[in-house]
Amino acid sequence: MPKILAIEDDPAILDFYREFFTEAGFEVRTAEDALSAINLQQQFKADLLILDLNIPAGGGMLVFETLRNRLGDPVPIIFSTGKPELLPNFKNIHYVATVSKPTPPEVLLAEVKKLLPKFFNRAMDPNPPPQSKIDKSRILVVDDDVCILELYKEILSKAGFETQTAEDAIGALTRFQDFKPALMILDVDMPAGGGKKVFERLRMQLASPVPIIFSTGSPEAVANLGKNQNVIILKKPLTPEILIEAVKKLLKMP
Taking CA atoms, which of 108, 130, 206, 234 is between 20 and 30 Å from 120? Predict the structure, then answer.
């Protein structure tokens, strides 16, 4: 049964969400402020959020940014608001939709179906294909120092990993979408935007929770990102033992 978390400070609208989505076959939980929503999502692990913009304790954007950036949660989100003009442009953001209040039930359900096609396709198909598993052997290494790329590639290959490389932020994002790595090793200071930009694009725009190892000579530059889930910061130069230990830790390998 798919799960929806509805976040809204209007009790009447929450009652509507509960009744409407329960009848549509969803398990529904609700929250009335940003902090409660973040805490509940970590426990409930909803398949989709319906999120009001103006809610107490930080607002809807705090929920969005915390889940996507700090917690690495790619959960699809529908912003439901009476003031859509106050929202940023989500045109290039994956798994985000916007509806204006008041929202006709059929419009709301149509947006849910767009963001959760696997549940509706599965309901129609008695023999759905098995979901593909992430290949944990794939690692993307990004650094503008070719010598470091070759060193990491050699270390990882000897440990049994399939490795591809990129030398700047744009190349990293392009290669990521083609290669679909299970983990990235990411330099901070490099051309075309730097490691921080890659991290933000992956977590916020592409909704990817891919684990990231920041390999940098200046760990203080990304110290705040170490608070995020599935992120490890290592100071260059790295020994093979330290690198492989961090990789296995993030990939939950023995």
Answer: 206
Nearest to 37 by CA among 5, 12, 75: 5
Between CA 34 and CA 84 the distance in angstroms is 18
Q: Provide the pLDDT confidence category of residue 127 given band limits of 50, 70 and 90.
A: low
At residue 166, the 3 state secondary structure works out as strand
Helices assigned H by DSSP within 84-210: 105-115, 117-124, 146-158, 169-179, 194-200
Please tell me whether residue 213 adopts helix, strand or coil conformation. strand
Q: What is the pLDDT of residues 64-87, one digit of tens each?
A: 999 999 999 999 999 999 888 888
Do the domains 138-250 and 3-124 match in fold?
A: yes
Tokens standing for residue 10: 């209007």
215: nearest Cα among 189, 241, 177: 189
**Residue 96 is which amino acid?**
V
Using the predicted structure, report yes or no on whether residue 216 has a pLDDT greater than 70.
Answer: yes
* Residue 177: half-sphere exposure toward Cβ, Cα within 13 Å: 12
CATH 3.40.50.2300 describes domain 3-124 = yes
Which one, of 161, 60, 48, lies nearest residue 109 by Cα?
Answer: 48
Q: Looking at the domain 138-250, which fold is it?
A: Rossmann fold (3.40.50)
Name the residue with higher pLDDT: 191 or 223.
Answer: 223
Q: Which residues pair with 233 in a beta bridge?
A: 214
- The domain spans of the chain are 3-124, 138-250
pLDDT of 133: 55
What is the reported pLDDT for 122?
57
